[in-house]
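User: Please predict the structure of the protein below. I'd like the answer in structure-token form so I can feed it into my own downstream comparison script.

Assistant: Understood. Taking the following sequence of 358 residues as input:
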Amino acid sequence: MAAHPAPPQSRDIAESLGLAVVASSRAPLLLLDGGFLVIAASASFCQAFAINPESVAGQPIFSLGDGEWGVPQLRSLLRATLCGAAEIEAYEMDLNSPARGLRRLVLNAHRLDPGTGDTPRILLTIADVTQARRDDARHAAALMEKDDLLQQKAVLLQEVRHRVANSLQIIASVLLQNARRVNSEESRSHLRDAHQRVMSVAALQHQLAASSLEGVPLRPYLTHLCESIAASMIGDPERISLTVDADDTVVASDISISLGLIVTELVINALKHAFPKNRKGAIRVAYKAGGGDWTLSVSDDGVGMPVAHKASAGLGTSIVAALSRQLQAEPSIKDRHPGMTASVSHKHTASAPALDAI
């Protein structure tokens, strides 16, 4: 059955309702006819673009204001919309007004078919996003500036770590020279201990200087650290071996320092006490993590810890205990027969976060 045109009275009522909707819209909105003449404009449009609401109806959109709306891209968009070739969604356009300067607009244009044989119309909504784009630009500039500052900080921190490591090596050399000069065996032993600790800290600094600021992978970190300790303390690698078995955990640099110092103290302790009289053996450093829990251990197959030594807590033991508290972990010692295992273990709780979450 053929459709019949709506009665003139119905068309007038629909037109009146449409004009009322446009006029009362809080968003800047224009209703255009097929010749791009303004049928109706919302009060918000007239206010936003300083257009006289009494004279806007019947004017071509391209002549509104001081003619700034007559830009070629707007003409092309409206023509494409009118012929049904396109429906414009979120098209951004610059509007350069002599009175208000350059503004960034987002346009949405939709063709309206009355269905009565009348000429199609265009509903055009306009959003002024000038301030939003300026805020975006400022935010992007601030992020770039922040990235530049972080990069500068990273470079400076790496340089500081290199300088600290070099200074520590000089101090270690002085300690070793003094150890060779003193006559007291006790003083010589203390100076050598100090030398080894300073060298280990220097090795830690070198490792951190070569690592990322975002995180330190423990396996290569502990491997290189133990290689440095072995090179400075194990005269015969065929007599004593030092190996590392660690998972793929990545920790923050400050956490890696604490773990590295614990490993240094425990390995030095094993080298000093586990293999007397040129005894052969092996030392194994292990780190395992899972479910927020982790364990760092140093095991040897030596003579075990003498009873007299168990009763006294030396400097190394105090250092390990302090670092363990800092990591919210518990140190422990177990006999292995042969040898012993010194461990530092962390149990994940709400107040004690996992290392890889720090």
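That's the full token string. The longest helix spans residues 130-181.
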